[in-house]
Amino acid sequence: MAKINNRIDQTFDELEVGQVFRSGGRTVTETDVVNFCAITGNWIEIHSNVHYASKTRFGKRLVQGSLTYSIVTGLIQFGLGIQANYGIDRMRFRNPVYIGDTVYAVCEVIGKKEKDDKYGVIQFLMKAVNQNGDLLQQGEWSLLMLRKRDDLDALVASSLPELKPA
């Protein structure tokens, strides 16, 4: 039985190859697309021009692939063990995303590489699927992570301010 398991609070050493994380859905709206056009300057006609888009093979406007990727990376909630984005490989846009589609994230641990005693790189296969289960896009996302729970706990403790008495 599928369930929502979208919070990755583990450290590098605690994650195992084969672990799968799944999110709930998020419907992509007209506002999302227009705001993304404005923020990025990506006013390409297929995203912003209803008349033009109606004449294409898709018959209507498409959601930007980079917006879909951004949404998916937010649907999986990464904890404080993540230290940096290390790279994205083999990103593929498999099916179009339309305004009104609901996007879900599926994230599988597919590799681990130790960097040193403190850090490692985790490789995830990140997939976006729609409400029909169609694969929209996928890519291999590598993240630099703290390896040990003690190091993560110490970092968190050092980043929290002392509370002053009232």
Characterise the protein shown here.
The chain is α+β, with helices and mostly antiparallel strands and 166 residues long. It is 25% helix and 35% strand. The protein is built from five helices and eight strands. The protein has helices spanning 30-40, 45-48, 50-54, 65-75, 149-159; strands at 7-8, 20-22, 26-27, 77-78, 82-93, 102-114, 119-130, 135-146. Strands 2, 3, 5, 6, 7 and 8 form a six-stranded antiparallel sheet that branches. It starts with 6 loop residues before the first strand and ends in a 7-residue tail after the last helix. The model has no long low-confidence stretch (mean pLDDT 95).
Average pLDDT for all residues:
95
Count of helical regions: 5
Report strand %. 25-35%
Helix content: 25-40%
**What does the overall shape look like?**
elongated
Are there runs of 5+ residues with pLDDT below 50, and where?
A: none
Give the total of beta strands. 8
* Subunit arrangement of the protein: single chain
**Main sheet: strands, sense, barrel:** 6 strands, antiparallel
Write a brief structural summary.
The protein is α+β, with helices and mostly antiparallel strands and 166 residues long.
How are the SSEs placed, and which strands pair?
Layout lengths: L6 E2 L11 E3 L3 E2 L2 H11 L4 H4 L1 H5 L10 H11 L1 E2 L3 E12 L8 E13 L4 E12 L4 E12 L2 H11 L7
Parallel strand pairs: 1-4
Antiparallel strand pairs: 2-6, 3-6, 5-8, 6-7, 7-8
